[in-house]
Design goal:
2 domains
C-alpha cells in the first residue's frame, strides 16, 4: 500500500467510485507515502555523500547534515567535516556522554558482564576527556579498541576490524540503525589495510595500530570515530540484552533449587530476584511520592494504582504475589514477595522525624509485621538486595 502511495500520480478521483470517503482516505495515504519517500531519499543521500567520508549520521542535527551534504556537493568536503566535527564537542558533548552512559549499563544485571562493561565505559569516558582536550592521538586508539571489543562481546567472537570469516555482520534488517548509519560500509572504511607507511590522515585501524598511518590524530578523525561508536552502540544494545537474558536463563537453570550462596552471601538461585526488587523499589518510590502529597502512605498501590499489567511488564507473572501492609496510622508501609526460588524479598518505609527510613527484607519466610526481626538496618542492603 505505502509503496503504491509513494508512486501515486496524485489523481484520486477514480477512488470515489469505490465508495464514499475512500478518495479522502487515499489522499492521506498518498501524502504519507510522499513524506516517506522524501525520508528514504534523504537517508539515501546522506549515505552516499557522508558515509564514504567516515561519518555515521544517525544522531547529528538535520540542519548540520543537510549543510554538510551541500558543502560536499560543492567540493568543500573539508568544511563539511569540520562542521560535523562540531557536533561532537561543546554543546554536542552530550552525544559522547550518552555513548558512555549506554555502554555502562550494557551488562546489567549480569554479575560478570556488568563490571566488564563498566570498565569499557570508563575507557570511553577517558577517550571523551582526550577528545575534548584535543588529544586525538589518544582518543582514537581507545575508541577503535572499544569498537572491536563491543562487537566481539555481543556476537560471540565476531570482529569489527577484519576481512576474514570472523567479520561481524552489522546489517540487521530489523534495526534501521544498521542501514541508516551505513555500518557495513563504515566497517569496510575503518577496516582498510595501510600497506605502506603514510601520513594521509586515514581512518584505518590497521594503520593506527601498526604505526603505518602517521597523521590519524585529527579532530575530524576523532569525531568521525565517535559517530561510528554511537551508531555501533545503538546496534549492539539489543544484542547485549539478548546476551544478558540468555546468560541469565542458563545460570538460573543451572542453579535452580540450590541453597548455596556466593562469596558475598547472595543466594545463587536468584530466579525472579531482579524483577522482584525492581517492582518493590518502584512501589517504594511511588509510596514516598504519595506520602509527600497526602501525609500518609496509601494502602492501594498494589491492585489500585498499579494493576496486573504494571507487574507483568516488569517480568513478573500475571499472578504476581506482591503483598502490602500499611500501619493503621499510615506512617509505615511494607511490600514483599516470595520469589519462585522460595526466597522472600521485602521493603519497608517509615516516616520518622520528618524523613523516610527505608529497610530491606531477605529471608525464607515473609516478614511478621513492621518490627519483626530480620529487617535490615536503615539504608543497609542485604546481599540478596545488592
Amino acid at each position: 500500500m505505502i509503496n503504491a502511495a509513494m508512486h501515486s500520480t496524485g489523481d484520486t478521483k477514480w477512488f470515489s467510485l469505490l465508495g464514499p470517503g475512500i478518495e479522502d482516505d487515499w489522499q492521506q495515504v498518498v501524502t504519507a507515502g510522499a513524506e516517506y519517500r522524501r525520508t528514504v531519499e534523504g537517508i539515501e543521500t546522506l549515505l552516499t555523500k557522508l558515509v564514504p567520508r567516515g561519518w555515521a549520521v544517525m544522531t547529528m542535527q538535520t540542519e548540520a547534515l543537510e549543510r554538510a551534504m551541500t558543502l560536499v556537493e560543492e567540493g568543500r568536503g573539508g568544511e563539511a567535516d569540520d562542521l560535523l566535527a562540531d557536533q561532537w564537542a561543546g554543546e554536542g558533548a552530550w552525544r559522547t556522554k550518552r555513548v558512555c552512559d549506554r555502554v555502562r549499563v550494557m551488562g546489567v544485571p549480569d554479575p560478570e558482564l556488568r563490571p566488564l562493561f563498566e570498565h569499557r565505559a570508563r575507557l570511553l569516558r577517558l577517550a571523551k576527556v582526550h577528545h575534548e582536550a584535543g588529544r586525538y592521538d589518544a582518543s582514537i586508539p581507545l575508541l577503535q579498541a572499544q569498537l572491536e571489543g563491543i562487537v566481539i562481546d555481543v556476537t560471540s567472537g565476531k570482529k569489527f576490524f577484519t576481512k576474514s570469516k570472523a567479520k561481524a555482520d552489522l546489517v540487521d534488517p530489523k534495526r534501521l540503525v544498521s542501514i541508516e548509519a551505513g555500518l557495513a560500509a563504515l566497517q569496510a572504511t575503518y577496516g582498510e589495510d595501510v600497506k605502506q607507511t603514510q601520513a594521509g590522515g586515514s581512518l584505518s585501524r590497521h594503520g593506527v595500530a601498526h604505526g603505518r598511518e602517521l597523521a590519524y590524530d585529527t579532530r575530524v578523525n576523532s569525531a568521525k570515530t565517535w559517530s561510528v561508536m554511537d551508531a555501533l552502540v545503538e546496534w549492539a544494545l539489543p544484542k547485549a540484552r539478548e546476551l544478558v537474558d540468555q546468560r541469565k536463563a542458563d545460570r538460573q537453570a543451572a542453579n535452580a533449587g540450590s541453597q548455596a550462596v556466593d562469596d558475598n552471601g547472595k543466594r545463587v538461585d536468584d530466579r525472579e530476584f531482579f524483577e522482584t526488587r525492581d517492582m518493590l523499589r518502584l512501589l517504594s518510590n511511588s509510596a514516598m511520592g504519595h506520602h509527600r502529597q497526602r501525609g500518609h502512605f496509601r494502602d492501594d498501590l498494589v491492585g489500585g494504582v498499579y494493576g496486573d499489567k504494571d507487574f507483568t511488564k516488569r517480568g513478573l507473572p500475571a499472578v504476581h504475589g506482591v503483598q502490602q501492609a500499611v500501619r493503621a496510622d499510615g506512617a509505615e508501609v511494607i511490600y514483599w514477595r516470595e520469589t519462585i526460588s522460595g526466597r522472600v524479598l521485602g521493603i519497608a518505609l517509615r516516616w520518622e522525624g520528618g524523613a523516610f527510613v527505608e529497610r530491606y527484607w531477605a529471608a525464607s519466610v515473609p516478614p511478621d509485621g513492621f518490627t519483626s526481626d530480620g529487617w535490615s538496618l536503615p539504608w543497609e542492603s542485604p546481599p540478596d538486595w545488592a
